[in-house]
Amino acid sequence: KIGSTSLIRKLAGEALASRADEVIVVVGAEAHMIRNELKGLKLTIVDNTDWARGLSTSIIAGLTAVSEQCEGALFMLCDQPYVTSYLLNQLMERFESTRAPIVTCEYAQTVGIPALFSKSLFSELKLLKGDAGAKSVILGRIEKLQRISFPRGVVDIDTSDDLEALPR
After folding, report:
1. Closest of 105, 104, 26, 22 to residue 71, by C-alpha
2. Which of 10, 23, 136, 162 is the most buried (most CB within 10 A)?
3. Cα 70 to chain centroid, rounded
4. Residue among 22, 54, 66, 46 nearest 134 (CA)
5. Longest CA pairwise span in the chain (Å)
């Protein structure tokens, strides 16, 4: 929790406050607990029963739930506390204005999530295996990327020590 709100609920709220047409949350480990945290929010929850096989399975589960009409999918993680609806809207606006295959965040001399992927990349993303996230797809198109500066993207909460180190 950050204050009185769980990180997953805070970030789901940011996604819901953005211009996104639909918000899909993929749950795996601790699915029941996460579902409880998301009660009352207007979003779609997708179960990833294969979660133990790695991050790629969550990407695939999420993409499988996406509408056929969508032009792109914006991926975010539940451990980056500084993601805001404003940032998500910037990614979507850049995608709409450039039609780049990927619009990604840039932080700590790298690029990464949150990132928006064009529909043209869905089949490639569905081929990911194991704990590989979408980074290989991003780096494979480094010259065609559109980037949004997000210096605070380097902050993620993976452990209780990370949470304790977060400025209040």
Report:
1. 22
2. 23
3. 16
4. 54
5. 42
Specify the pLDDT at position 155.
86
* Per-residue confidence (pLDDT) for residue 31, from 0 to 100: 94
Which value, to the nearest 10 degrees, does the dihedral of the CA atoms of residues 159, 28, 80, 136 take?
A: 110
Residues 6+ apart with CB under 8 A from 157: 7, 79, 80, 81, 163, 166
Residue with tokens 């065609």: 144
Neighbouring CB atoms inside 10 A of 154's CB total 14
Please check whether residue 150 is in contact with residue 87, taking contact to mean a CB–CB distance below 8 angstroms: yes
Sorted by sequence, the CB contacts under 8 Å of residue 109 that are 6+ apart come out as: none
Q: Of the given ranges (47-56, 99-108, 141-150, 151-160), which has the lowest mean pLDDT?
A: 151-160
CB distance 15 to 76 below 8 Å? yes
For 17-26, what is each residue's pLDDT tens digit? Answer: 999 999 999 9
Q: Which residues contact 112 (CB under 8 A, 6 or more apart)?
A: 104, 105, 135, 138, 153
Which of 79, 4, 2, 62 is CA-nearest to residue 28? 62
Kindly report, residue by residue over 107-140, the tens digit of the pLDDT: 999 999 999 999 999 999 999 999 878 999 999 9
